[in-house]
Amino acid sequence: MRISARQIELFQMAYRHKSTRKAADALHISQPAISRAVAELEAEIGVALFDRSGRRFEPTAAAHSLQEAAQKHYHGLERVREAAQQIATGTGGHLRVAALPAVADTRVAAAAGRLMVRHPALRIDVDVLNEHSCLAALRAGRADCVVISSDPGDPNLACTRLPDIIPAAIGPLGDAMAQFEKVSPAELASAPQIMLSENSPFRSAVEHMFDQASVSFQVRAEARTQTAMVSMVAQGAGRAVVDQGSLGLASGIEVTVVPLAVDLKWPIRIVSPFASGEAPGLQLLVSELSGLISE
């Protein structure tokens, strides 16, 4: 990969200022020289380094990763070239993911872990936020992609729908629900419920299920993540509706699992700035999440 020290220098200045004009002023060169260097670097790597939608000039996930590599290997251009090659293939770099509590500590964490085992040069950080905070972090540049439920409907954001999650009811081992092939909302509500926090879209879907069946229910406790919900249920604190496909990711926790008698599906989407939507690292994560949800 042909990358020069001068290209890295101009890229870093554009990255620091988030503006080709300010970068050019700082280096006392023309703005087209900065733009040309960034464009050549993007062409060489094969991914967008800056989101230019509207009046924006925001660094993408690939840019963050390249900047980290440049700072770490400042005196070794060959290592920067190697890092750029890994970023170009998605097998290296740094990806910051924010996700809803219903999937963050199960599907997203598992997908991130599997990818990092296969690609040691790849780092994926996972944060747990509600849907509003996920999108705020994405738009502020604090996250490279988010895993949420709804489509934000923003033309500046790329939104990929993953296979829907099929929830199931769970109770402690020996729960009376085990006698049913499928459990109705009324049968499920005969015991207190463990739920995610009130601002969770997954919880809203579960509450809507009860409302549609005209069934009242008691909330025994709230938990921040799905793994915490499953742990509480396993101890006998109540029942819950969870993502059935992720139960196998909660290592060592045993519960009674019964399919729901109603048709409840929960959509899940991965959203990123439009310029980053086709980035190889992000595509690897989409593929891994799709595989987990389909298992």
Walk me through the structure.
It is a single chain. By secondary structure, this protein is an alpha/beta fold. It folds into 2 domains: 5-163 and 269-294, D-Maltodextrin-Binding Protein, domain 2; 167-264, D-Maltodextrin-Binding Protein, domain 2 (3-Layer(aba) Sandwich), CATH 3.40.190.10. The chain has 11 helices and 12 strands. The longest helix is centred in the middle third of the chain and has 18 residues, at 101-118. The mean pLDDT is 88.
Could you outline the blueprint of secondary structure elements for this entry?
Layout: H1 5-17, H2 20-27, H3 31-45, E1 50-51, E2 58-59, H4 61-72, H5 77-89, E3 93-99, H6 101-118, E4 122-128, H7 131-139, E5 145-148, E6 157-165, E7 167-171, H8 185-188, E8 193-196, H9 201-212, E9 219-223, H10 226-234, E10 240-243, E11 256-259, E12 266-273, H11 280-294
Parallel strand pairs: 3-4, 3-5, 8-9
Antiparallel strand pairs: 1-2, 5-12, 6-12, 7-10, 7-11
Helix pairs in contact: 1-2, 1-3, 1-4, 2-3, 4-5, 6-11
